[in-house]
Amino acid sequence: MPKRRIAIAGIVHETNTYCRGETDKSAFHQRRGEEILKTLKSDTSLGGALRCCESLGYEIVPLLVASAQPSASIAYETYESFKSEILKSLAAVQPIDGVFLDLHGAGVVTDIPDLEGDFTQALRKQLGEAVPITGSFDLHGNITQTMADAMDGIFACHQYPHIDMHLRAEEAVRLIHRMLEENFRPVIHVEALPMLMPTTNTFHGVGKETLEYMLSLEEEEGVIDVSWFHGFPYTDVPHIGTYVVVTTESDRELAIKVSKKGAAKLWTERNRFLPISLSADEAIAESIIAAKEATPIVINETSDNCGGGSPGDGTHLLSAMIKADLQKACFAFIVDPEVADQAHNAGVGSTIDISLGAKYDNLHGDPLQLTVYVKALHDGRSTMQAMGKGSPIHFGKLARLVVGGIEVVIGSRRSQTFDPGPFEAVGIDVETYDFVALKSSNHFRAGFGDLAAKIITADPPGLTTHHVEVFPRETKVYPLWPIDSDASYDA
């Protein structure tokens, strides 16, 4: 009997429509064939799916997975090129027994507000109703019934930081296996709430409690999966919100009932998700007090998180650190390829005058005119240690610069700081510092949570601020909590 064949494909993008311009093809990391198979050992969605296919004895048919850093809306021509290539590749490799998709859920294309809905509907139209299609998603997806109706299983990562992407992808592949073995067709219901959730981690507090409740709903007979999508508030699309997506064994009424139960819980608890938002100066002042008890204090600048589309070159937090004359402090990293090049050209041991950061816009601060000492240089190639463990990551040229009592790492490519990797690359042992600053909203907790004496969040102006009320909502079709007093939900 020939092996069953599972195709692997995906278009992965978290779109911040408030970013300038468009995201074109050159911004995407494009994996085809063998390049996809190289992710087998990584704790990523692709790694989990590939390992599961291997364990089940399936033949893997890798097509195209295109992924990019969160950024502006995708250019229409770019998306159509990827979609067309995947559809043509699928047609060429028939017959296929199932398709696993690596998706985000918050993709927006110029003139197409629901990338995943358009993409999955096109796949379903080509493949017909008999071929199982499942996928793993980022929990920050903005999910529609359109995409759900084209799929047989939608599996959001449960955790934020996303340390379980590989596990959820494995579940998606195992559902394909069940469908083929047991000959049934799941149904999916998307229950949307008019909520703009702030970035909420799932390892303590209301985030942890809510996730535990959602997972308890999976215990009901006939329920395959309950996925709580926090949504992505930094985008302007009609379907924006927060979602409970339930997959059941062919029982739509059960899917609706369970999803409404989860949604009602979210709505009842909504005010508990409101964040405490500190300015850069307030965060530094609180950090100085906390450091008297224990160190290191980790300060995350949530509002300039490249993982949500921001430029990563904001100077608000570093400026406050310099103003406070912090000692035994380090910061990784500020994205500024010009300064990184300048430091590499000057070499280790040089003293240089720089104009640092704030080159993208004036929302994220003003350029800092500094005289710095170049202490170390690195090519920026590293391996992820916590979230996405085992995956290669490239920060571009790195430079370790010293200004007063602060050691600042400069990077050349946009990325949030997931773990101590960019610090370690230039010789910084974060555990020997009193203050460790970085740019990230929550993913950093996977790499820094155990070593931080305390985590303090700075939220100065930026494209990923908790102050979601500052973003215009031109496509809004209903009132949204917490920005509209008349927002309502009735399960």
In short:
By secondary structure, the protein is of the alpha/beta class. The protein is 28% helix and 23% strand. The chain has an eight-stranded mixed β-sheet with strand order 12-13-16-17-11-18-10-19. Strands 2-3-1-4-5-6 form a six-stranded mixed β-sheet, with helices on both faces.
Task: Give your account of this protein's structure.
The chain has helices at 34-37, 45-55, 76-92, 115-127, 145-149, 165-182, 205-216, 252-268, 280-291, 316-323, 337-346, 421-425, 445-448, and strands at residues 5-12, 29-32, 59-67, 98-103, 133-137, 153-156, 187-193, 223-229, 242-248, 297-301, 329-335, 351-356, 368-378, 381-383, 392-394, 398-403, 406-411, 435-438, 454-458. The chain folds into two domains: 5-273, Response regulator (Rossmann fold, 3-Layer(aba) Sandwich); 280-465, no CATH class. The strands form four sheets. The chain has an eight-stranded mixed sheet. Helix 4 (115-127) links the parallel strand 4 and strand 5. 28% of the residues lie in helices and 23% in strands. The protein is α/β, with parallel strands linked by helices.
